[in-house]
Amino acid sequence: MKSDAVRNFIDLPRDLHSRVHEVAARKGCTARELIPAGIERVVEEIEKAPPRRRLSLDPPLIRPAGRRIRVTDEEIYWLTE
């Protein structure tokens, strides 16, 4: 293990554990080498992805039903006291 590495423990389902070892054997490496490479690949994909745009709610996605009620902040405070 590298000197700057941090040791982690993860729980894997038995079938995934077996598949990881099978894939590592086919690639000619160990599961200990394959797992960090897979994690690094996923992290790089996420970092490269463009940031998602926030959904604009102006105008609203769903039109309001019924009549609109116009109430000021003062009226709301008065009604809730």
- Quaternary assembly: single chain
Strand residue content = under 5%
Overall pLDDT score? 88
- How many distinct helices? 3
Sheet with the most strands, sense and barrel status? none
User: Uncertain segments of ≥5 residues (pLDDT<50)?
Assistant: none
Gross morphology: elongated
Please write out the topology.
Blueprint: H1 14-27, H2 31-48, H3 73-80
Helix pairs in contact: 1-2
Describe the protein's architecture and organization.
The chain is mostly helical. The protein has a domain at 10-51. Helices cover 49% and strands 0% of the residues. The chain is built from 3 helices and no strands. It has helices at residues 14-27, 31-48, 73-80. The N and C termini lie far apart (65 Å). The relative contact order is 0.05.
Q: What is shown here, in short?
A:
The chain has 81 residues and is mainly alpha-helical. Helix content is 49%, strand content 0%. It is built from 3 helices and no strands.
Keywords for this entry:
81 residues; mainly alpha; 0% strand
